[in-house]
């Protein structure tokens, strides 16, 4: 096993601290630092934490909808919701012409959340809403055996090893009384922004806390991290090099086993409605073979593919300002007011443009 592959696999197990990776892998710290800070970014790899939202007391929901408004306007509204509500992620499907979004919120606010969506629909902003709970959502470990770290390319014979990876499903159970505080959430939010270069001293200065406080809470916040995930995303001209896909199939083990063994699959989730989803970022060179594998193993009536738009997507950090006095707050009333202001601003801008 080459050193880069060993560093990546160790990182996914123990986290991004150079000393931990060096101790477990036996690779010198200087090499670990070079791989994480220089080599991997040049190859298009970056590290993100996969947060255990259920342990934070948050249930995830999949919300799909269409809109008669231009895509860029709805994207701006979703960016606002990502800052002031529990929106975690959204993306636009080019072929289905609909948005897919994921919210993570306390179950106690489900009624207000659904009412908020109804108001958005009644205002004409969105239509054809479909809402369901997610049984789980998680990042998958990078399949390092299928990437040539020396040449910087994906191996093209991956389809000869299909079915070798076994990962059991892990349904999420939302904690009714999460053992977390605001400082823990701040640290998790900062780790969502960057993992490898985070320093206790910088966080202490930014949030006016002591270094000892940051260190103590960092250790506790680690309990809410499922995986230090390593993602591939081309650093230059990604639209020419990679194709983002969302695959939707019935939640059957044979389909899931196929999809988690495609090396370009980086995330999976399952809904309470019996649907299984896999997110892939397929290199252009491997797209035809990926399509062949999918269509050869999944019946056409059960296979749905969304081609995702890289221009209209958003991933948000944990909004720790929504956690006050030890409890998650209900933001949906104030969100409606902010939404109205955004809509009015969009209408005025449209009139000026005309």
Please tell me about this protein's structure.
- The chain is an alpha+beta fold and 354 residues long.
- It has helices at residues 3-14, 18-25, 29-43, 71-84, 110-122, 182-193, 200-206, 211-221, 238-241, 253-260, 287-297, 332-353, and strands at residues 45-51, 59-66, 87-93, 98-105, 127-139, 147-148, 153-154, 225-232, 242-250, 265-271, 275-283, 304-315, 323-324, 327-328.
- The strands form four sheets. An eight-stranded antiparallel β-barrel has the order 2-4-3-12-9-11-10-5. Strands 1-8 form a two-stranded antiparallel ribbon. Strands 6-7 form a two-stranded antiparallel sheet.
- Strand 13 and strand 14 (327-328) form a beta hairpin.
- Helix 1 packs across helix 3, helix 6 (182-193) crosses helix 8 (211-221) and helix 7 (200-206) packs across helix 8 (211-221).
Which key phrases capture this entry?
Alpha-Beta Plaits; 27% strand; 39% helix; eight-stranded antiparallel barrel; 12 helices; 354 residues; two-stranded antiparallel sheet; single chain; alpha+beta
């Amino acid at each position: 096993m080459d050193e880069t592959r060993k560093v990546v696999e160790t990182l996914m197990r123990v986290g991004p601290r150079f000393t931990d990776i060096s101790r477990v892998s036996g690779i010198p710290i200087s090499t670990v630092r070079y791989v994480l800070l220089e080599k991997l970014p040049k190859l298009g790899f970056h590290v993100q934490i996969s947060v255990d939202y259920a342990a934070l007391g948050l249930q995830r929901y999949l919300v799909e909808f269409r809109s008669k408004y231009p895509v860029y306007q709805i994207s701006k509204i979703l960016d606002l919701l990502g800052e002031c509500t529990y929106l975690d992620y959204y993306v636009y499907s080019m072929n289905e012409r609909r948005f897919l979004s994921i919210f993570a919120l306390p179950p106690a606010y489900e009624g207000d959340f659904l009412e908020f969506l109804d108001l958005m629909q009644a205002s004409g902003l969105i239509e054809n809403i479909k809402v369901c709970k997610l049984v789980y959502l998680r990042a998958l470990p990078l399949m390092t055996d299928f990437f040539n770290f020396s040449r910087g390319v994906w191996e093209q014979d991956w389809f000869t090893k299909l079915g070798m990876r076994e990962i059991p499903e892990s349904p999420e159970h939302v904690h009714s009384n999460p053992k977390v505080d605001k400082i823990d959430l701040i640290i998790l939010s900062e780790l969502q922004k960057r993992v490898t270069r985070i320093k206790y001293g910088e966080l202490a200065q930014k949030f006016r806390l002591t270094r000892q406080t940051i260190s103590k809470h960092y250790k506790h916040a680690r309990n809410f991290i499922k995986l230090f995930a390593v993602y591939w995303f081309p650093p230059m001209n990604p639209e020419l090099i990679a194709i983002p896909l969302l695959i939707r199939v019935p939640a059957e083990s044979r389909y899931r086993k196929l999809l988690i063994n495609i090396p370009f699959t980086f995330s999976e989730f399952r809904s309470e409605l019996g649907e299984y989803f896999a997110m892939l970022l397929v290199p252009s060179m491997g797209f035809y073979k990926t399509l062949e594998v999918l269509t050869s193993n999944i019946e056409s009536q059960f296979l749905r593919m969304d081609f995702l738009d890289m221009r209209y997507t958003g991933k948000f950090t944990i909004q720790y300002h929504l956690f006050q006095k030890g409890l998650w707050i209900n933001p949906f009333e104030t969100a409606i007011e902010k939404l109205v202001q955004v809509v009015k601003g969009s209408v005025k801008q449209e009139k000026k443009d005309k």
